[in-house]
Amino acid sequence: FPDDLLSGLLSTRLILSGPTATPHLRGDIILNDAKLTLPTVGEKAPGEPASIELEADVVRGIGLTIMRMELVIPPLRVPLKGKIVLGNRFSIDAEVATGTVSLSSLPEWINKGGIEAGNFEVSMDIKGSDADWKNWRTSGWIALTNGLMSTKGLDGQIEDLYVRLKFSRNHADIKQLSFR
Length: 180
Known about the structure:
Elements: E1 6-8, E2 11-17, E3 24-30, E4 34-38, E5 42-44, E6 51-59, E7 63-73, E8 76-87, E9 91-97, E10 101-102, E11 115-128, E12 137-150, E13 157-168, E14 171-178
């Protein structure tokens, strides 16, 4: 992740339960007044709504184990379920499944890669034991349906764009591609 991933004012709401030495945490981190830089996605300016909802346990000798985390950029919700361990050793074994997202409803600051409209869906499994996300193993798929795209050099627009990419062991295969 970039060094300037997050800067500015954050606020949080946490509910703690269980033993004080190993509490269970549930709450959210509110990023509305912070700048958030997501590689290849975009840069959220302060004042734009965003938050991270999470559920985690403090585990003695290990650190923080996150079981559920959800990035909320209205109206988008990106849920991550599984296990992320933050501590002396990092690890991730989780899945992301967005459900269908209308691209035209997303905030302007999110990079849509020239696609003006359409429905986007992601289902990915992520595994890794290195804090560098470039070393994580991903598998799953990304789909775009009913896409509308303008491209330089073409008269008119690409309509009814349908793309399905399958990811396996950090390789991507185009499983289906059609358009008018």
